[in-house]
Sequence to fold (401 residues):
Amino acid sequence: MDPISNPYAPGAGQRPPELAGRDEQVKSFTVVLERIARGRPERSMILTGLRGVGKTVLLNTLRSTAVRARWGTGKLEARPDQPLRRPMAAALHMAVRELGHPRGDDLDHVLGVIKAFAQREPAGSKLRDRWNPGIDVPAVTGRADSGDIEIDLVELLTDVGGLAADVGKGVGIFIDEMQDLGPEDISALCAACHELSQSALPVIVVGAGLPHLPAVLSASKSYSERLFRYSRIDRLDREQAARALRTPAQDESADFTPEALEAMYAATGGYPYFIQAYGKSVWDVAPGTPITDVDVKVGSPEAEAELAVGFFGSRYERATPGEREYLQAMADLGAQSVEDQADDAIESVATSDVATHLNRKAQSLSPARDALLKKGLIYSGERGRIAFTVPHFGRYLRANT
Fold:
């Protein structure tokens, strides 16, 4: 097959040629936009799932949907070592610019509030470290500049929401890797969303994160369970996985045999990132159409080698020797408890079992476990249990370490 016309696109956050299996989420979000535009109450949204299921792609798609509805939008990616103020200010600055509000006192006031919010640094910060958000109006005094992130964010989003309502539009803030926000920032965001829902202002937050994000939100504010609309993004079923493969191929006058589709599903487990990676490799080795199960067998080693370096290996390299030992124990336990190893990434293991497997006391393993949690390599969906955040990671460890 011609590699130049290869339609598959493996990449972090890169939209696949066919966004299969996400129609329900896009349709639901369109309804949310319409309801908010009509002044009806709606909840902000949270997307959760393992790495490689397409959360970032879906987040970007929802943002594009908001843009087509003529909303103002801004996006940020949370980082464990970065407070919320600066990225939130930059995202809101972009959203306000997209609103197209005529320049006047109201717009200048909101821009000044965004600037004040951004420049309110913690006590002890040096003057030379003050960040200039690129807003050409003076910072407003006495609004969103108290230094309390919860008070300031409520005031800021309230003012932005009022500006959007003036022009009959809405504002959407899209936050990727939301679980990496600090506890104070998570609490402030929940409080702000709560205030916005009570005020019926046209502002919505759409967050994406790992499966334990709902627990993070709940630990911050007990009412977060009712504050957000939660959507779990999972791997594709056989029908949707086939659609993700066949539609792009058919656009290039090619197709897969039923046997090839079954072999591809067995190899990828239905995870969207893996579908793109295997699709690209198999396309390149196939001599012609239709693509067969033999082509899948020939092309799979190349896909596996690429994933071993870029998807699995890069994450494994971030772990220390002690952390790798912990990961290996999880993989070994997963092999013992899961008959279908394609599902090992979504099965959890008990932390006490890891300690027993390593013949160590559970307390002595806490530093390694906590470090892996912070690095986003594992997550805890329930007390006393942990799981990999990366699909097929256990299988990779068993085969390569």
